[in-house]
Amino acid sequence: RGDVGIRSPFAGDLTRIVFDDLISLFEGTVGPDGCLTRASAMSLPGVYRARGIILSLLADKPLQAWRGATLLEVAEQPSFLYSTPGILGPWQRMLRTIDDHIFYPYSLWLTVRGAESGGRKPILSAVHCPYESWRVNEVGLIELQNRDGGWDVADEDEVILIPGPSEGLLAYATRTLAGSRALDKAWSDRA
Questions:
Q1: pLDDT given at position 63
Q2: How far is CA 160 from the centre of its chain?
Q3: Global pTM?
């Protein structure tokens, strides 16, 4: 019997059209690790709206220092919890941290610490580090991207790794996000 294949004057063109359509669907949506990107997820109205609701409810909640089950007095609260250096305030830092936890498994803060006192170096300031500017290397150490585009291992005193509640939307909802993107593209193409 042998291989019949497609018998049509458009057979070659149809294959090209189908593959071009599939490629354009994911064009610019996957990162170097093969996962959907935050930007592609944010292009979906449902993700954008849900993120906005979550951030509006949580980003303005103040961080507080506790010792066990006791809230520390106002005078004892470390200043890095309610202030940040530079133009971005604590609200922006919290917004970006929660945003990381929506899409990724971790968030990272860069810290400046004071002189050692009682075996500990107090945190003087902490700023959010963009997710794309750091990584965990093969031996589990945090590396920060330097100005030349290379990677330097971070000193443990200069970072705070904040684990999120899950692996993040981009890890757990890849199929759903890709499907939503396909529906959105099909709808807008028809319109």
A1: 86
A2: 16
A3: 0.74
